[in-house]
Amino acid sequence: MTVNSNALDRADELDEELKDGKLAGPLHGIPTILKDNQNTKDMPTTGGAVTLEESMAPEDAFVVKQMRDAGAIILAKANLHELAGGGTSVSSLGGQARNPYDLDRTPGGSSGGTGAALATNMAPIGFGTDTVSSVRSPASACNLVGLRPSIGLVSREGTILVALTQDMVGPITQSVTDAARMLDVIAGYDPEDPSTAKGVEHIPDSYMDYLNPNGLDGARIGILRTVFSSGPESEPVVKVAEEAVADLKALGAKMIEVDAEIDVDELIDSFHVGSFEQQEQFNEYLDSLGSGAPIETFEDFVEAGEYHESLESGLQAALEIESPTDKPEYFERLYRRAQFVERLYDIMAADELDVFFFPHQKQLVAEIGDDQLGRNGFLSSGTGFSSITVPGGFSEGGVPVGMEFLCRPFDEPTLFEVAYAYEQGTQHRQPPEEFGPLME
Questions:
Q1: Beta pairing class for 125-130 and 31-35
Q2: How far is residue 361's CA from residue 88's CA, in Å, rounded to a whole number?
Q3: Is residue 168 packed enough to be buried (19+ CB in 10 Å), middle (13-18) or exposed (0-12)?
Q4: Where do the record's region annotations for Disordered lie (predicted)?
Q5: In the annotation, is 91 catalytic?
Q6: What share of the chain is helix, strand, coil (3-state, %, to 5)?
Q7: Which residues pair with 90 in a beta bridge?
Q8: pLDDT tens track for 90-99
Q9: If we measure between CA atoms, which residue out of 405, 389, 385, 403 comes closest to residue 344?
Q10: Contact 377, 387 (CB under 8 A)
Q11: Which residue out of 110, 133, 137, 150 is catalytically annotated?
């Protein structure tokens, strides 16, 4: 969407510091891609929307500042599904992002621009935001790693949000190691996001300490087999997932068949709160821009009518709800959410599980023009449990398939142990044939 015009100057400064033996931080000189719903003081933050094309935030988002302080170079801001409002990464301002492994398919969404950029080696690390599965969907579709941290571990301040109850900011990377490196930098307390107060006591000295190649040895992993398939269209994914189960066993994990019927689509219908919270969240974001806001309200955005057609039904539904607290259905959804969270805790306790395992999506990433179906990622975003998606292999047609591990909130150390061991034991990460290294 936007390339940082100051990136080369900053790189030169960091090179000079390095010559003098100085490091700006643990990410010194590392090019980083942002999703274009994260505030930057030196580039527009558009959300992929024509209406916000020239919108400038007064300061960096909290995590962006943390990255710069750690020495990272903010190289560019990537396309997304407009306002993070869908799963296929198309926007009125940026058009359709494409999957570098199959240009007729989407790169997942809503953070698909970041996924495509990292898969094609434009940068090694980047960010997504996740309301349903939007950090992990591009990771699955683009043969990458996507981490959705526990709510309270990473600040959401300075981000165009859909639903504060569900939204998280998280790393998208080419390796589990780099996801741990990024989490070390961005985890922490931010008074502008009060949820982060509860995460402080759970942050270890370094998540890098949990990158154990033998991390699957004796790990108890629950197979959520009822979310593997949605019919014949799931066969390419199920084949890869069953191979992953065999690999996990071979790497020392104790695989437990979870006796629970779970329908993720029903869960989304039951307690997804995006439509209830979006208007209020968007208005708060516009207020934070002060005099730099190009419009004043969510209603102004909808009435401008410049958004991509895929947002129509969602925006109209959200427009009817000025405040979620005025709607009894909102509280019913939160109650049903809490009930399901207790159910997951109970399953993990009864079977003495360390993590759950399942394919991130029931179907291959959607072809351009189709909706993305079979979104298992809601098991994390709908509950607040932490999860990570890692490369699990490819369909016979060469389309990446991501595998997901889900754990209790703030148990990221366990998540990194099992994900790293699986990654190192399988080595499924491969660049797309048409987009290899930028330099030989």
A1: parallel
A2: 13
A3: buried
A4: 20-42, 91-117
A5: no
A6: 40, 15, 45
A7: 96
A8: 999 999 999 9
A9: 385
A10: yes
A11: 110
Q: What are the tens digits of pLDDT across the range 362-421?
A: 999 999 999 999 999 999 999 999 999 999 999 999 999 999 999 999 999 999 999 999
128: domain range? 2-426
- pLDDT (0 to 100) of residue 440: 58
**Cα 139 to Cα 111: distance, rounded to the nearest angstrom:** 9
Residue with tokens 């057609």: 309
- Residue 180 located in a structural domain: yes
- How many domains does the chain divide into? 1
Q: Is 327 part of the annotated catalytic residue set?
A: no
Instruction: Tell me which residue has tokens 């599904």.
Output: 81
Q: Are 82 and 307 in contact (CB under 8 A)?
A: yes
Please identify which residue in the block is written with the tokens 């019927």.
261
Q: Give the CATH number, domain containing residue 287.
A: 3.90.1300.10
Report which DSSP code applies to 150.
P
pTM of the model: 0.97
Catalytic residue among 92, 134, 150, 230: 134
In the residue annotation, 35 being an active-site residue is answered as: yes
Q: Write out the two tokens for 12.
A: 């030169």
What does the pLDDT look like over 146-190, one tens digit per residue? 999 999 999 999 999 999 999 999 999 999 999 999 999 999 999
Catalytic residue among 35, 65, 77, 362: 35
Phi-psi label, residue 225: left if phi above 0, alpha if psi -120 to 50, beta otherwise: alpha
Best CA proximity match to 132, nearest among 30, 264, 44: 264
Q: Following DSSP, what letter does each residue of 197-208 receive, concatenated?
A: GGTGGG--S-GG
Residue 168 lies in a domain: yes
In a domain, 196, yes or no: yes
Tokens found for residue 104: 């007729």
What's the CA gap between 412 and 169, in Å, rounded?
A: 15
Number of alpha carbons in the 13 Å side-chain half-sphere of residue 139: 36
- Which tokens is 374 given? 């079979």
- Distance CA(129)–CA(398), nearest Å, equals 26
Under 8 Å between Cβ of 343 and 382: no
